[in-house]
Amino acid sequence: MDYKKNLNIKSTCKAMKKILLVMLVSFMTTATLAQSEKYIKAMEAKIAMLDSNNSANTWKDLANSFERIAEAEKTQWMPYYYASFCNVMIGYSSMPQDGGMGDNSSITDPYADKAESLLNKAMALTVPNTEIYCIKKMVHSLKMMGNPMVRYMTEGTKATESLAKAKELNAANPRIYILEGQDKFYTPEQFGGSKAEAKVMFEKAQSLFDTYKTESNIAPNWGRSQVAYFLSQLK
Q1: Which of 33, 60, 114, 124 is most deeply buried (CB count within 10 A of its CB)?
Q2: Tell me, what DSSP letter sits at residue 189?
Q3: Domain definitions of the chain by residue range
Q4: 175 close to 214: Cβ distance less than 8 angstroms
Q5: Backbone torsions φ then ψ of 155, nearest 5 degrees
Q6: Residue 52 in 3-state DSSP?
Q7: Three-state SS for 130?
Q8: Is 190 helix (H, G, I), strand (E, B) or coil?
Q9: How far is CA 69 from the centre of its chain?
């Protein structure tokens, strides 16, 4: 009897352990899903604002929001990516609007350096991809624009190389052609700029957007409003 009783006790203990394990796994899965849903909703709310913003202050708010999400998640590369993108846009938005080509590095460099630091964190969390290199191109372009007469050969070259890498990784990414089009649009003709060539680039981006599919709701998908703006300027 004692032997049978011991067997029953052992069986009951094993059964209890299995139940507890299942409950623990279920709890952890539910908690993970809840955290994932919270992360995705937070990202979606901020990403929705990217294509409708042209204010430096709003870019700053978005940059801070994405960085807070990044620091909370730690293992996700996209919040760092978006925070980097927003810092580049702050830099662009903060530049003097008089079209001057002087030394504005004291304005642009802090944002370019911040963007580069955040992008390095994103790169450490994912494999090389076309979106990362598009932002890398933008970082180097911002650094160049801070002092174009001095930095064209260094930062300008790095920007060109980064965009070429983005195209190598995925030539169907419409953001590549937005960036190429902007370069052609803003560069004086005597230095290789061309409004006609810019229009071709923006039209290609627009065409690619018609068939472009993202991997998720929070994957990079910005740029449609930029295409619409530039094409409206090139009629």
Answers
A1: 114
A2: G
A3: 50-171, 172-235
A4: no
A5: -70, -35
A6: helix
A7: helix
A8: helix
A9: 13
Q: List alpha helices for the chain, DSSP H.
A: 2-47, 56-73, 77-94, 105-123, 130-146, 148-151, 155-169, 174-186, 195-211, 224-233
Rg (CA), the chain: 24
DSSP, collapsed to helix, strand or coil, labels residue 128 as coil
Q: If DSSP codes are grouped into helix, strand and coil, which group holds residue 79? A: helix
| Number of residues that this document lists for the chain | 235
The encoded tokens of residue 42 equal 């937070």
Nearest to 36 by CA among 89, 91, 75: 75
Going residue by residue through the chain, which has 235 residues, state the pLDDT in tens, using 9 for 90 and above: 455 555 455 555 565 555 555 444 443 333 333 458 899 999 999 999 998 887 899 999 999 999 999 999 989 999 999 999 999 999 999 998 776 678 999 999 999 999 999 999 999 999 999 999 999 999 999 999 999 999 999 999 999 999 999 999 999 999 999 999 999 999 999 989 999 999 999 999 999 999 998 989 999 999 999 999 999 999 8
Which amino acid type is present at position 173? N
The phi-psi region of residue 136 (left if phi > 0; otherwise alpha if psi is between -120 and 50; otherwise beta) is: alpha
